[in-house]
Amino acid sequence: DDDIFSSIFCENSEKLIDVHLFALTAKYYSLSNLGVCTPLEDVLRALKGNSQGATGIKPDEFMNNKKSHEVQVMSELVDSIANYCGIKQVIDIGSGKGYLSSFLSMQYNLKVYGIDSSHSNTNGAHERNRKLKKHWRAYQSRGRPNLKAQNLEKTNDRPAESEMKCKTINEELLNNTKSLQNRDQVIMQDLVPSHGFTEMGTFETRTETEADLVAEAKSHEGKLSEEVLAILNVLPADAVEVFSSSHCNWGELCEEEKVQRKMTSLKTKATKSSESNPYLPLTSCITAETELSDIVTDLEDCVMVGLHTCGDLAANTLRIFAAKPEIKAVCSVGCCYHLLSEQFENQEECCDKVWGFPMCQYLKDKGWCCGRNARMSACLALERVAVGQVVPTESLFYRAVLQVIIEEMYGVTRSDRHVGKTFSKSSSFIDYVRRSLKKLELDDSKLPDSCIMDYYEKYKHRMNELEAFNMLKIVLAPCIEVLILLDRLCYLKEQENIAWSGLVKLFDPVKSPRCYAVIALKEESCS
């Protein structure tokens, strides 16, 4: 209300005059107080019904505490969404090092494509997943009795719609004996349980289809050899090994024997990897216009997820979800609000650009703008400060005085370069300034130590003032985050094909400050 704000700020000077009321008002407009979030327990109950999800393996043995907490909570939710929709494919946008992707694949037997723009992240995810597979059986053995019971219950409780789909597709495969390509597809489904088939559904077709394949192998040996090898592109790189030519003399084998040996090798390796569906890290930059089918060649009905997708990537994840019919559900946790692009920040006319904020038509019509300082504030962690985490006042003070030095001594007001984590590597303020100037490619030789210390002494008495200012920013942070998250939720509410959408608090905000997920399911996935 206007009356409340007039009590917090002076009408003439617009200065803050009531800190206590400011804090109470900020709390009132925080997401936890507005009552717009759906409790995670309610979402899981609606998705699972009376069935119980897998609880066997915990990720804390191979991840730090924060990442373990995030992966464990989010993976259970994503698995519940996938089961509810009757699908097995997951697209992890901004997958990074693949923590969530690999756990979804190994723990929940989902086929996961992890897409990240960084080659180093993708390569790291490949290597990390390779090492993790070596130890996964040991992790699984600890919870095997529980997992067996849960998997059996999960199979029995699978949605009726999914059972009908599976039955219909299997009947078509059994009745269709005209095309060798269709038989190859059945074998691929046996090897890779990633297209919505249950193990029970495909097992009954295995004997008949393989017998038909051998009977016609002679007339189709060339085509079959090529198409069997194509299966290797579907499975993860380390899940299947090509049969080595050193094991036998291929020139002395007939084509039928070659095919049979290839099939045997593929089945052996696929059986070993069947305990966990493939996780495939891919490198690609995702935008709102990205065609997923160009990246994921076997794209099917899927869930799109993002764990701390940075800046505009979170907004683009929701846009892709709304636009692509194959994506039946989305679960997105954003971060790095300061990197969002804003349509009305610089008042630039650019009709073709897709902006990170605002997304919904309501805020667009209002011409709403946050600005970089507000978005930076939205990234702060009030809950951590509330439990005693110290605000890094000294490093903030160093950075503030450095800004003054750069403007007054070098005439620089904006730069594309960043100082980064220079404070932790510096032994003193002088050392900090010189390291920072080098990073900014500014000549520090014109600046004697005495001059640097003069600036330090000039502003030293204002350090407490800076600390108070940053505390006010931290108190206000949840209000700005509310605006960004509600903008994304309103965007989904504006879409015609969305059956349900909501904001859900997934994580403990002390462990993981960016703890809210935007979740949505399309109408056809809820039918």
Describe the structure.
The chain is an alpha/beta fold and 527 residues long. Among the domains are: 1-136 and 276-383 and 477-522, 3-Layer(aba) Sandwich (Rossmann fold); 387-460, no CATH class. The chain contains 23 helices and seven strands. The protein has helices at residues 2-8, 19-28, 31-34, 40-48, 65-85, 99-108, 119-142, 144-156, 160-175, 180-191, 199-215, 221-230, 255-273, 292-295, 312-323, 361-366, 372-378, 382-386, 393-410, 429-439, 449-459, 463-494, 523-526, and strands spanning 89-93, 111-116, 279-283, 302-310, 327-335, 498-505, 516-522. Strands 3-2-1-4-5-7-6 form a seven-stranded mixed beta sheet, with helices on both faces. Strand 1 (89-93), helix 6 (99-108) and strand 2 (111-116) form a beta-alpha-beta unit. It comes from Onychorhynchus coronatus (Royal flycatcher). Residues 66-343 form the Methyltransferase domain. It holds the Pfam family Methyltransf_32.
Describe the sheet with the most strands.
Answer: 7 strands, mixed
Q: Report mean pLDDT, rounded to a whole number.
A: 77
Helical region count?
23
Shape descriptor: globular
Strands of the biggest beta sheet: in what spatial order? 3-2-1-4-5-7-6
Could you give the distance between the termini?
A: 43 Å
Structural class, from secondary structure content? alpha/beta
Give the SSE order as H and E letters: HHHHHEHEHHHHHHHEHEHEHHHHHHHEEH
The residue ranges in which pLDDT falls below 50 over 5 or more consecutive positions are 154-252, 266-276
CATH superfamily of the domain at 1-136 and 276-383 and 477-522: Vaccinia Virus protein VP39
Roughly what fraction of the amino acids lie in strands? Answer: 5-15%
Count of DSSP E strands?
7
The level 1 CATH classification of the domain at 1-136 and 276-383 and 477-522 is: Alpha Beta
The CATH topology annotation of the domain at 1-136 and 276-383 and 477-522 reads as: Rossmann fold
Supply the CATH architecture of the domain at 1-136 and 276-383 and 477-522.
Answer: 3-Layer(aba) Sandwich
Kindly provide the radius of gyration, computed on alpha-carbon positions and rounded to a whole number of angstroms.
28 Å
Residue share in helix: 40-55%
